[in-house]
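Q: My labmate handed me this sequence with no annotations at all. I'd like to see what the chain might look like in three dimensions before we decide whether it's worth expressing. Could you predict it?
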Amino acid sequence: MSEHQTNGRLLRLALLANGAFSLLTGAAWVVASDSIATWIFAAENPVFRLAAPALVLELGVGLLIFAAFVLWTGSQTVINRLRAKIITVMDVGWVLGSAALLVVAPELWTETGFWAVVAVSGTVGLFALDQALGLVVLYQGRHDVRTDWTGGRLTLTASGLTSAAPERVWSVMTDHERYADVADNLSKVEVIGGSGADTQRRCFDTRGRSWTENCILWEEGRAFAFRVNTQAADYPYPIAQLEGQWSLATEEGSTCVRMRFEVTPKEGLLNGLLLHLMVGPFARVCGRLLDNWIAVMEDRAGPLPDPQPRRAETGLAQPA
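A: Here is what I predict for the chain of 320 residues:
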């Protein structure tokens, strides 16, 4: 089980709403199976007429079992991603199966039954969509990664503990040109001028696109920060402002490594929506970055390989 999970509100609410809807629907089908069968089915076949109430009853029992599973999954302190995915796939299967029955056997339904099936499958489809979006933005991992939206600006903070000495941590953190070896979304980082507080650098993503950054904070042995030149004509992302800060602090015999990013999207509804959808992937990139970074700090990673392009998980430009 993961130690940390953030951005789970959408997924949790979707699961709980899905479970409550399934519980109410299943209970109604169990209690009033005869009436509901007569209400929704129009088939004149006498054998089907006799079997229809039993079919509704069985579906109701199945929905009650499904509802219990969904409510249990959504109520856990840490939501299990695999179970949430299984529930979402089952919801999609329900929607597709309902659509197929409506198209292949329209004579099976009364007019009321037809639209009832449409309404139920549409509701289930909305739950599936919300759960899928919830899984996209969800982060869970060994490190504490948190996000906060204030006035349209995203603040993402990530921290992890290492047994490495502060001097070793600072040395690894400030090795800018080797940083791309531990960051999924970067293929290369070049220092193009200055050092310390005057450092300028160019970062390349895994698709070869690049941007420049300027140091805006340097506290030797403790913290540094960079601001991305998002106003450049060739800047490849829909971001108006992006700053990143890296710092360390000692905590009860360990060293805490911290990252903080402040991101403001460019104006436009689509740009804001894109940034919301990329929160989960960006958080996962930060979590893996901390994993890789701490392994290097603790000399568990072995020699770092030469930089090479890797598959990008997120289109957000993370300052290096």
